[in-house]
Amino acid sequence: EDGIRDHCVTGVQTCPLPIWWIYVIRRADGALYTGIALDVAARLAQHESGRGAKALRGRGPLVVVLRRRIGDRSAAQSLEARIKRMPKSAKEALISHPRRGIAALLTKNK
Fold first, then answer.
1. Its pTM surpasses 0.90
2. What is the rounded end-to-end Cα distance, in angstroms, of the chain?
3. Of 12, 84, 105, 109, which residue is most buried, by most CB within 10 angstroms?
4. How do the residues of the chain divide into helix, strand and coil, expressed in percent and rounded to 5?
5. Do residues 52 and 27 touch, judged by C-beta distance below 8 A?
C-alpha cells in the first residue's frame, strides 16, 4: 500500500511508477464522496483535518467504504468521473459488490 509498483527507466536511472487508488467516503449524513489518491489513508487524514474537499469539511465522522487499486492516474481519473456521475443507488451497489462493479466500469472504459 505504499503506492509503488514496478519501475520505469529514464536514461540510466530507474523510478517507481505510482499506483493510484479510487476511494469512496461515507459522510455522517450518509452522503458519498468519491476521490482518487496515491495513499488513501493520508488523503483521509487530510479530509478529516479540513484540508481536503469542501464537501467533506465538518461532515464527519468520515468512513472509507470502498478502496480499490486502479493503476495509472488517467484510469483512476476516468473511473472517478464515471462514479461521480452515478446515482447514489448505483454507488451503493458498487460498494456492496466492488469487484464486479469496478470490473464492469473499467471494461466500459475500453
1. no
2. 26
3. 105
4. 40, 30, 25
5. no
Q: Exposed (0-12), middle (13-18) or buried (19+): which is 77, by Cβ within 10 Å? A: middle
Query: Residue 36: beta bridge partners?
Result: 22
- pLDDT tens-digit map of 77-101: 999 999 999 999 999 999 998 777 7
Distance, C-alpha 70 to centroid of its chain: 8
Q: Concatenated DSSP letters for 45-84?
A: HHHHTT-S-GGGTT----EEEEEEEEESHHHHHHHHHHHH
Give the C-alpha separation, 16 to 4, whole Å: 6
* Residue 17: its H or E element: strand 13-18
pLDDT at 16 over 90: no
Q: How far is CA 67 from the centre of its chain?
A: 6
